[in-house]
Amino acid sequence: MCMSKGYPIGGAGLALRRAFINSLADEIPSQIDFMEVAPENWIDVGGQLGRQFRKISEQIPIICHGLSLNIGGQAPLDEVFIHQVKEFLDLHNIPIYSEHISYCADEGHLYDLMPIPFTEEAMHYVSERIMRVQDILGRRMAMENASYYAVVGKEIEEIEFVNAVLKKADCMFQIDINNIYVNSINHGYDAEDFLKALPGERIIYAHIAGHYVESKDLCVDTHGADVIEPVWQLLGVAYKHFGVFPTLLERDFNIPPLNILLKEVETIRQYQIEHESSGHLIRQE
What we know:
Elements: E1 12-15, E2 34-37, H1 47-59, E3 62-65, H2 79-91, E4 97-100, E5 103-105, E6 109-114, H3 120-137, E7 142-144, H4 158-169, E8 172-176, H5 177-187, H6 191-196, E9 203-208, E10 212-215, E11 218-220, H7 229-242, E12 247-249, H8 258-277
Parallel strand pairs: 1-2, 1-12, 2-3, 3-4, 4-7, 7-8, 8-9, 9-12
Antiparallel strand pairs: 5-6, 10-11
Helix pairs in contact: 3-4, 7-8
């Protein structure tokens, strides 16, 4: 494991998927230092799957990345659900709960992550909802920079909006490297400039993933392909600029055999080793 000073987890991780849980329950491959789940998919799960999950959580750190908090939505926060998340985090000793700076529901669940308008009003609204979630959880959560395909009612730039939300809510930051790359292609900005303007002192861990190239100016954040070289290079830029932080591979569909995924997890580890040995020390509050 690449030791991550000041972080509750360290090294390289993999998102846990039911497609390969049978391969992990008895022994976790040495390439994996931590795993991530969506709490919505595991709260109150019993039977064989529940037992397998418990065995994994007893062997390796588990973190949570949510899908349905709807932090930017107009509907009231589902505080019953947030209390369920708190119980799940406590039950399995889960040190991190992250979510998306987006919304995902209106009168019903939209099953997608929709863009929040980049406005001062929306920034205050979202920040206050994050603070309420943190009050219920009794801990700071982390928010992720989301991918988006339409710009709605923009008054300030994306980077200003993200930084303002993180500061006002005083939450942690879960940096998604692929989302920065995808958004830079789709919205015509420099990915490295955007990355370097983010608050490194708030980073608690990162995501890296693959995407689908629709055209030269449209990428779709699918998590259904291998990570491409420019995204790996951007991860290296992040390590060089901020220091090495825990990083997790996401793969949500077109899931290959576990041994193929482990090769990409190992690539994360190699980037971490390279930048730690180069003196790019970790910076964390």
